[in-house]
Amino acid sequence: MTKVIHLSVECYPIAKVGGLADVVGALPKYQQKLGIDASVVMPWYDRPFLQQHQFEIAHQGSFYQGSELLDFQIYKEKENSLGFELYLIKIPGKLDRSEVYCYPDEGEQFIAFQHAFLQWLKDTDTIPDIIHCHDHHVGLIPFLVKHSKDFSFLSASKTVVTVHNGQYQGWMNWNKGILLPSFDTWKWGLLDWDGMINPLATAIKCCDAYTTVSEGYLEELYKAANGLESLFSNERQKSYGIVNGIDTEIWNPETDTSLTKNYSVKNVKTGKVANKKQLCKEYKLNPRLPLLTFIGRFATEKGADLLPEILHHIFKENEDKLSIFILGSGDQQIQSHIQKLAEPFSGELAVYFGYDENLAHRIYASADFILMPSRVEPCGLNQLYAMKYGTLPIVNNVGGLKDTVLDINDPNGYGVVFQKADVQDICYAVKRALDYFEQEDLQKKNQQRMMLLDFSWEKSAQKYLNLYSQLLK
């Protein structure tokens, strides 16, 4: 049986900041169903999941990070409640905190995480067939497997890197180089990009294969990758675009325990109405109006900086024609601008700052449209969740959105697609969606069509299995 270890700093439901967590929390489970021995290794976080589940210490060890001796423990979840083996690495003073990101010593944390992982494999003489690394946080692994004598025993293991977002690369000054495990210094150039240690660039140079989370995003990285365009192009012979799936055991309106009323393709209209009524009652919105939502990070790459102006235009042009629910957090300036609109548009606009998984499920089930004005969207999961719940996506024609949403003008279309992230285009797209909404028969058929689309992990997991098999041959 092929042994695959997924290495990531996020995994739902232990610690989630974005879509990375959803992927790592689902892909191994579906790989297990295909007969792969898939597990996840991630940092230890002081989060509720740890108090709610039983863990045992599977290993203890130590290593030097520069001149500092670090002790580490490997915690294994006893029940395998996620459908795969889960291991957490705890390092006192480094990996024992509550948050995933935003610490000033983040670079040292990620180096320690990767070193502890490799040391654990060495101590226990464990040689996986595939080490699957997710994003730059673990981008040094392919280099260390190949060019550190301490870990040469892993030379038969293949490394796969999945790029969830190529804009973030983990840049570090070369003064951090002393913190790395000992390596062949003749190979220092593999760590370097433009005078910095660049873990993502290192990963792409040294891995056996790299994937992106959609075919569209792979093509975009050749043209716009925050300085790594030439590298992605030069290494394209080992690149694969595999669109993410969704975990239909969690995202399923027929069984979702978060919902006021469960529903299926057969009763989608009455099901969504019941959920909308309850949500609107709680947040003082009019349930008789179509409901538009935005769910996500307040970041420019998500187009969230456009939201305040979009809201002004939409409410001005569509007075008493729709309600809007925004769920998100991030850039404080964007959040402040949105907050200022909450009072003048009271009764038309509901805002929840932060992220609430349960609330997100309820919004998908209640909303008629979801807006995704992203400038960059490597895959996008929100549009897939929305469609599974019969909610029409209004999306920019980029990355994975381009791969997964077909415009309603197409005979087989089911979403509204606009061509650039600007206020005029977006507001026109919303108008198109509202016009479509008024055609009840078409709208109901479209809801049913969306819900029957297959964006499950089964297909994507099989593509990863094919890639692993190809590498191991």
Automatic annotation (TrEMBL):
It comes from the Bacteria. It is an enzyme of class 2 (transferase). Residues 3-232 form the Starch synthase catalytic domain. This is Glycogen synthase. The lineage of its organism: Bacteria, Pseudomonadati, Bacteroidota, Sphingobacteriia, Sphingobacteriales. One of its GO terms (molecular function) is alpha-1,4-glucan glucosyltransferase (UDP-glucose donor) activity. Its EC number is 2.4.1.21. InterPro entries: Glyco_trans_1, GS/SS, Starch_synth_cat_dom. It catalyses: [(1->4)-alpha-D-glucosyl](n) + ADP-alpha-D-glucose = [(1->4)-alpha-D-glucosyl](n+1) + ADP + H(+). Residues 281-438 form the Glycosyl transferase family domain. ADP-alpha-D-glucose binds at residue 16. Keywords: Glycogen biosynthesis, Glycosyltransferase, Transferase. Pathway: Glycan biosynthesis; glycogen biosynthesis. The keyword Transferase applies. Belongs to the glycosyltransferase 1 family. Bacterial/plant glycogen synthase subfamily. Synthesizes alpha-1,4-glucan chains using ADP-glucose. GO terms for biological process: glycogen biosynthetic process. It holds the Pfam family Glycos_transf_1.
